[in-house]
Amino acid sequence: MATASNKRKLFFFDKKSRKEGAEMSFIDHLEALRWHIVRSGLVWLVAAILIFIKIDWVFDQIIFAPAQSNFITYSFLCDFSHQIGIGDALCMPPIHLKLQGNTISGPFMAAISIAMVGGLIVAFPYLIWEIWRFIKPALSPKELKYSRGSIFWISLCFFLGAFFGYYLLAPFTFNFLANFSLGSTNAYQYIPTLDDYIDTLNNIILGCGISFELPILAFVLAKIGLISADFLKKYRKYAFVIILILAAVITPSPDWTSQIIVAVPLLLLYEISVVIAARVDKENGKQEKEWS
Fold first, then answer.
1. Are 63 and 201 a contacting pair, CB within 8 Å?
2. Are the beta carbons of 214 and 270 closer than 8 angstroms?
3. pLDDT (tens digit, 9 = 90+) per residue, 29-67?
4. In terms of Cα–Cα distance, which of 204, 200, 122, 202 is closest to 159?
5. What are phi and psi of 247, to 5 degrees?
6. 107: exposed, middle or buried (Cβ count in 10 Å: 0-12, 13-18, 19+)
7. Among candidate residues 289, 110, 276, 139, the one with its CA nearest the CA of residue 202
């Protein structure tokens, strides 16, 4: 039976041996990975519980806000439209969306879904930090130098994408869907379900958050030599087509406005990735000259 000191040693993965470069067996790596997953899960769970405790406020002020007419994005875009002299071009019609539930457990399961996804977003920097701690011992000093600040940049790109999806794409999506009608007769009444609304919002936020990691992915792939700036430039036209398809997948609504709103930032991120890859190629070229 393991003693308290042995358990403490396992919990911290025998940091001394890892820092000294001692080889670890496959089982040791699995044990280290297990504790990284355990700690990540605990932080995620704590964040989800805190959100669940305040679920009423979270739902009213955050989750349901993009579907309300007084959401900040609607007034901002309309004022901006007037300031640049294009009239009401960016003003969206008001919506009065109401949600329905068709199961007894619907509200409770919706609260669980909100808490789990919200906890994931809140704990995202810590989760990335745990991944970083697991792979750090395997990196060389040069790789550690290049990866400095990676947690900050990965988290920043994710949150920028999440904010973009929440404050810009979600209002356009819900506004379009809420004001879309089929036929000229009132043959049906449009009342979306609570689960459908929450799933749509989650997909928008998480999809945009992951998509905004494109520059980070380009940096990593360029560093390990899988892509280069010339490669990205050569296949730019194909990438643009893929981005347009991806924008259509991310946006639940089929209107071209929402797809353009997603596609333009992704195209910009692709061009940023080209610049990043070019800088990496330049640094790699200098290193090759120094070694030769």
1. yes
2. yes
3. 787 788 889 999 999 999 999 999 999 999 999 999 888
4. 122
5. -60, -40
6. middle
7. 110
Amino acid at 273: S
Residues 6+ apart with CB under 8 A from 96: 69, 178
CB count within 10 Å of CB 38 equals 12
Token pair 């979600």 is found at 170
DSSP string, 146-214: HTTTHHHHHHHHHHHHHHHIIIIIHHHHHHHHHH---SSS-------BHHHHHHHHHHHHHHHHHHTTH
List, for residues 190-235, the tens digit of each pLDDT value: 677 888 889 889 988 998 898 899 888 888 888 777 888 888 888 8
pTM (predicted TM-score): 0.78
Residues 6+ apart with CB under 8 A from 179: 93, 95
Residue 9 is classified by DSSP as: H
SS3 100: strand
What CA–CA distance (Å, rounded) separates 217 from 154?
A: 9
Residue with tokens 């700036």: 229
